[in-house]
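Researcher: Here's my situation. A collaborator sent me these components and asked whether they could plausibly form a single complex. I don't have experimental data yet, so a predicted model of the whole assembly would be a useful starting point for our discussion.
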Amino acid sequence: MVSKNSPIIIVGGGAFGLSTALHLSQNGYTDITIFEQDTQIPPRYSAANDLNKIVRAEYEDSFYTDLTIKAIAAWKTPLFAPHFHQTGFLHCVTGAAPEKAIGTLKRFQGAANNHPQLRPHVVQLNGPGDIRPWFWQCDGPLPGWKGYINRFDGYAHSGNALAAVYRVTQNSGVKFFLGAKGAVQEIVYKDGKGTGIKTVDGKFHGAALVIVAAGAAASKLIPELGGQVVAKSWSVAHVHLTDEETSALRGIPVTYARDLGFYFEPDPKTNLLKLCPMGGGYINTDPNTGVSHSPGSLETSAFMPPDDEERVRKLLAQTLPGLADRPLVRKSLCWFADTKDSDFIIDYLPGTGASVVLLSGDSGHGFKMFPIVGEWVKALLEDESKTQAIARWRWKDQKEEKEEDWGGDVSWRLGETRELKDVLPGKTKL
Ligand SMILES: Cc1cc2nc3c(=O)[nH]c(=O)nc-3n(C[C@H](O)[C@H](O)[C@H](O)COP(=O)(O)OP(=O)(O)OC[C@H]3O[C@@H](n4cnc5c(N)ncnc54)[C@H](O)[C@@H]3O)c2cc1C
């Protein structure tokens, strides 16, 4: 077991890395260093460098429902509360939704209704007339919309939450190496045991334990992971509102049509309303290895594919038609680490004598857990058996994994996964 004064390196200053630093430093670990490739935190490469992320408790799988309920309790504590907004989650399908979307919506609603803590907050919505009282600003036709609202849910301002935890961990003695000094080129091993890391500026930094929390880029540092995790992205764009429009939309619920996408209440500092289309996402497969990696440069991802743009404009036309033809700004593909079953991977890297921990597989639903992720890492480090007690979060034997369909058949996803090269601007096949 790593001792509380052993040097611990965390690679990645995104959601999982910062949460780990917070919990370890709050629990007596004294020598923690985060290495982050960007020059700033929140890092621009982090999937959580964003205005907002949905925090919804109902999962089809009650394991994650229970964890989210714990996370929401933590979101309401002083460090996190300024960044959590319990606006409710308006979860619907449109009249044109395919069966898969309708089935998923029903299972989510069933999960919320079956949970004693969530049930009192859930209201069934049988049509536009039921929806409008919860979202009075909505002046669109809501054609065939139905679903439910869960007032237990909401969203978190993820970029600001990262910044807050950065400040607190810095003040409690966690060291940070950013930019070229923080960009990790490789994990250094001796006789199979991790002894530290080498950064791109050629420096070696020793550690008793290396925790890899590198998000979509994890398999660049741990190539063996490529069989379990795929770098995948969804697109994001924003509408820039006036002060008055932002003000008028204060308090709207997170509005989600399963077959189109979702948006959030606008951010009062930037007047940006963030939009995400629903879809199977984009991968970037290296033809030589068959492994998908996030592109090295942010510029490559600074666009929204036309099909996605069509979907978010339709979402606006049905709900807030005055915004449907506005320019979309700050477009990007946002990269995350996807597993086939949407389970996280929080485990020792096999064969390293418990010297390397992997924190990955967020599968695009990890930010809601930001306040509590580090607790899980602490539990792993303090388990004398050096085994992840939660079987579903263990490193998976590659032979058990099937080749086909990287998470595409996960029930909460809709649409096929496409290759980045096929949707890059100028190369889109229409
Ligand atoms: C479009 C989109 C929408 C999402 N919506 C939601 C949502 O509504 N609700 C929700 O709960 N979750 C959501 N997520 C998921 C959430 O953002 C992630 O689960 C979370 O950010 C994962 O945290 P992470 O620390 O694993 O990765 P990240 O936050 O991406 O952080 C990884 C960090 O590692 C750094 N790094 C990588 N390689 C190196 C290296 N070699 N050296 C140094 N640093 C390195 C990167 O720069 C980055 O800062 C969404 C994700 C996307 C993409």
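Model: Some features of this prediction you could bring to your collaborator: The mean pLDDT is 95. The domain at 1-51+157-229+339-396 is CATH 3.50.50.60 (FAD/NAD(P)-binding domain).
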